[in-house]
Amino acid sequence: MPDIIQSPLQPTAWLRKLYLTRAAFSFVWVALAFSVARQSPVLTTILLVVYPAWDALANLVDARMTGGPRANPSQMLNTWISALVTVAVVASLVLGLQIGLAIFGVWAIVSGLLQLATAVRRRKRHRGQWVMMLSGAQSALAGGLFVARQGTDAPVLQTLAGYATVGAVYFLISGLVILLRKPQERPVNPLAATPTASSTSCGR
């Protein structure tokens, strides 16, 4: 039943689509953060909540499309952490707590390390993972900087937008690496799968 046999190229094609989609989303998010959100507190709030929520969704779909939750523990853990960060951001905004940079900083550290772990695990099967390894390491470093800047006058949204810009570039590069260096399927020789006349006539 060939319709249930999964091609080995399907996970690679999915990762390419995921990385390019995440890059596009981040570029749009950054454009909004640096433009209309400057004059709109409501849009600022929405962007701050949407960013970790989107990350949670992307990690969840990634895990399900590349082997399932059991095969992707780091992705599932990243999903739950991003979801908790979304709740923490909402709570801090509702309560008026000025701890946004600290929340996003801790999240960037943990999610970056998990992204690094995921890329290390995938590096032998999928292209472009060296870019994801760099992205994860950079995320952890940026998170430390966020935590160190907590309590200063640094604007949370614009600071996070700079971080998101770098992440978008990493996703774009990784997606392009997979796209441009995608392994090609070998054509199936129909004669190889069809018994020859000599083999069918043999008495085995």
Automatic annotation (TrEMBL):
The keyword Membrane applies. It comes from the Bacteria. The chain crosses the membrane at residues 19-37, 42-61, 81-110, 130-148, 160-180. It holds the Pfam family DUF308. The keyword Membrane applies. Keywords: Membrane, Transmembrane, Transmembrane helix. This is DUF308 domain-containing protein. It comes from Variovorax boronicumulans. The lineage of its organism: Bacteria, Pseudomonadati, Pseudomonadota, Betaproteobacteria, Burkholderiales.
